[in-house]
């Protein structure tokens, strides 16, 4: 027998009052999006659940894709059979024979929305349970915590059978919380931060600072590749490359070594905020983690954050490095992150950055620079690329590969 559809149960969005339909429609679009490479698949969604009709598409492949969609609590593959007692008996026998292991317990749980059906739920449970025991004499019917619960649903058009529940990704549908700008380096932390923001429904755009020729095409490709990994969870992502060379050279020339890092980060924050405003983002997301490096002391965070009132979300701020690495491995970004291409911060990093920068000094050094002009030119020079799971920018990347 082949699965006909997948029944999808919603996660937290069921508690969202009158926003509920907005959430459900977004989730439906997100499911349609990840399944768009299976043209036969159709998706419907009502208040209580969504249905993914396979129409012959491969269940395993579709299920793998569904597991990454935020806003899904669980889903069950479903067989569809004719509403006929003889057919139903044969179907439950086939299914249970396929699942049977020695000592197995089971129960049949029937629901009827078609109340004109010949048998009521109690009679159906008995008849179908009996049919199973007929072909598997050693199987035990058990009402409490059976190994297998075979659900039978008698609907108007047909009967639907399911026995398996697959855990979904949880979270909220991407796009339901608004847009945020993810500051994406080539490191381990920021892709994980992006993943966690997506998980809470934030649609992200990736902002990446590049300083050619100090940073290599390889570093840029790495950032592209990391972004592409994130498209698995939220669909296409706009990748915004910011030209950062001029700013880094200016800072290096005019500010003392110990303050390079703080000044650099403040510029990044200002520029990201300006881009956010242009592109109707609500928040900034970054991969800062408390105490990891000099830029990530509370004093540093305060000095860097002082350039904006925009909320800065730091999803990994309280996580241990090992916890972040575990997640990076789970979302398959770790191996890309550890590729040895230096990003702009590593190259200009001083040996001993200030861990407790004083705002007074920071402002004094910035007065030596044309902050507004530098920010404006960087924002003007951004290059926006749409990153897709298998996108056109691959061609560019392939070219880069040849050159490397
Ligand atoms: P990551 O692993 O994300 O690079 P990190 O531990 O290396 O983080 P930092 O280098 O201090 O930490 O960077 C802190 C955060 O600043 C990063 O997580 C990222 O959000 C942002 N950031 C750093 N460099 C860049 C860059 N080149 N482009 C965009 N954002 C950056
Ligand atoms: Mg880094």
Automatic annotation (TrEMBL):
Provide the binding site for ATP.
Answer: 183-184, 208-209, 265, 287, 296
Pathway terms, separated by semicolons: Cofactor biosynthesis; thiamine diphosphate biosynthesis
Q: Which residues form the THUMP domain?
A: 60-165
Stated EC number for the protein is: 2.8.1.4
User: What GO terms are given for molecular function?
Assistant: ATP binding; CCA tRNA nucleotidyltransferase activity; tRNA binding; tRNA-uracil-4 sulfurtransferase activity
Q: Which GO terms describe its biological process?
A: thiamine biosynthetic process; thiamine diphosphate biosynthetic process; thiazole biosynthetic process; tRNA 4-thiouridine biosynthesis
Location(s) in or outside the cell: Cytoplasm
Q: What is this protein's function per UniProt?
A: Catalyzes the ATP-dependent transfer of a sulfur to tRNA to produce 4-thiouridine in position 8 of tRNAs, which functions as a near-UV photosensor. Also catalyzes the transfer of sulfur to the sulfur carrier protein ThiS, forming ThiS-thiocarboxylate. This is a step in the synthesis of thiazole, in the thiamine biosynthesis pathway. The sulfur is donated as persulfide by IscS.
Spell out the protein name for this chain.
Probable tRNA sulfurtransferase
Species:
Streptococcus cuniculipharyngis
Its taxonomic placement starts with: Bacteria, Bacillati, Bacillota, Bacilli, Lactobacillales
- The coding gene here is thiI
């Amino acid at each position: 027998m082949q699965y006909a559809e997948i029944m999808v149960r919603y996660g937290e969005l069921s508690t969202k009052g009158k926003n509920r339909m907005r959430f459900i429609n977004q989730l439906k679009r997100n499911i349609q999006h990840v399944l768009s490479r299976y043209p036969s698949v159709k998706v419907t969604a009502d208040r209580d659940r969504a249905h993914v009709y396979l129409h012959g598409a491969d269940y395993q492949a579709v299920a793998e894709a569904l597991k990454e969609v935020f806003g899904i609590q669980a889903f069950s593959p479903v067989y569809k059979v004719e509403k006929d007692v003889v057919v139903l008996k044969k179907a439950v026998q086939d299914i249970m024979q396929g699942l049977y292991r020695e000592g197995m317990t089971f129960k049949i749980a029937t629901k009827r929305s078609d109340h004109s059906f010949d048998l009521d739920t109690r009679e159906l449970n008995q008849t179908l349970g009996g049919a199973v025991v007929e072909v598997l004499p050693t199987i035990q019917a058990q009402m409490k915590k059976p190994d297998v619960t075979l659900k039978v649903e008698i609907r108007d058009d047909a009967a639907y059978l399911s026995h398996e529940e697959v855990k979904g990704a949880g979270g909220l549908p991407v796009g339901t919380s608004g847009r945020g700008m993810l500051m994406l380096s080539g490191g381990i932390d920021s892709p994980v931060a992006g993943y966690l923001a997506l998980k809470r429904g934030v649609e992200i755009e990736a902002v990446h600072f590049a300083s050619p020729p100090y940073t290599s095409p390889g570093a840029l490709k790495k950032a592209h590749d990391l972004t592409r990994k994130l498209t698995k969870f939220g669909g296409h992502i706009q990748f915004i490359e910011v030209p950062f060379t001029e700013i880094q050279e200016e800072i290096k020339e005019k500010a003392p070594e110990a303050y390079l890092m703080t000044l650099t980060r403040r510029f990044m924050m200002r520029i990201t905020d300006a881009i956010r405003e242009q592109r109707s983002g609500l928040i900034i997301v970054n991969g800062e983690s408390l105490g990891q490096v000099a830029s990530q002391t509370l004093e540093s965070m305060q000095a860097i954050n002082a350039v904006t009132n925009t909320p800065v979300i730091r999803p990994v701020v309280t996580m241990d490095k090992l916890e972040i690495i575990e997640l990076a491995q789970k979302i398959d970004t770790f191996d890309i992150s550890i590729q040895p291409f230096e990003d702009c911060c590593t190259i200009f990093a001083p040996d001993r950055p200030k861990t407790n920068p004083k705002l007074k000094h920071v402002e004094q050094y910035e007065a030596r620079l044309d902050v507004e002009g530098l920010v404006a030119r960087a924002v003007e020079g951004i290059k926006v690329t749409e990153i897709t799971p298998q996108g056109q920018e691959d061609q560019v990347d392939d070219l880069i590969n040849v050159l490397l």
